[in-house]
């Protein structure tokens, strides 16, 4: 998975737009960030999940996924190592993040 492929998948969801936050590209629906690229560095993407969703994703994809640092990770923000991620993994994670943002 490349950053470009991650971005293309994120933008494939209806209404998702690319913006920028803290110098990194992010992907939003209705002003809510669902994913981003480049944090902690260019090798990673991030999806905004619930803590339970994060735990399940890490359990099944531990080599490619880890909690973000600090309080963000405790809240469900999850880093995905792009080089180890499959398209299926990223699509599933983005689907969850999209649903979380649109069902509130």
Question: What this model shows, in words?
Answer:
The chain has 104 residues and is α+β, with helices and mostly antiparallel strands. The protein has one domain: Aspartate Aminotransferase, domain 1 (Alpha-Beta Complex). Helices cover 39% and strands 29% of the residues. The chain contains four helices and six strands; from the N terminus they run H-E-E-E-E-H-E-H-E-H. The chain has helices at 3-11, 51-61, 70-74, 87-102; strands at 17-21, 24-29, 32-37, 44-48, 65-67, 77-81. A six-stranded antiparallel sheet has the order 1-2-3-4-6-5. Strand 1 and strand 2 form a beta hairpin. The chain is globular and about 30 Å long. The termini are far apart. The relative contact order is 0.21.
Mean pLDDT: 95
Helix content: 25-40%
**Number of continuous helical runs:** 4
Q: What is the architecture at the second tier of CATH?
A: Alpha-Beta Complex
CATH topology: Aspartate Aminotransferase, domain 1
CA-CA gap between termini: 29 Å
The largest sheet, given as strand count, sense and whether it forms a barrel, is: 6 strands, antiparallel
Order of helices and strands: HEEEEHEHEH
Report the uncertain regions.
Answer: none
Shape: globular
- The domain count comes to 1
- CATH class type: Alpha Beta
Identify the strand order in the major beta sheet: 1-2-3-4-6-5
Q: Could you tell me the radius of gyration in angstroms? A: 12 Å
- What is the strand content? 25-35%
Query: Count of DSSP E strands?
Result: 6
Structural class: alpha+beta
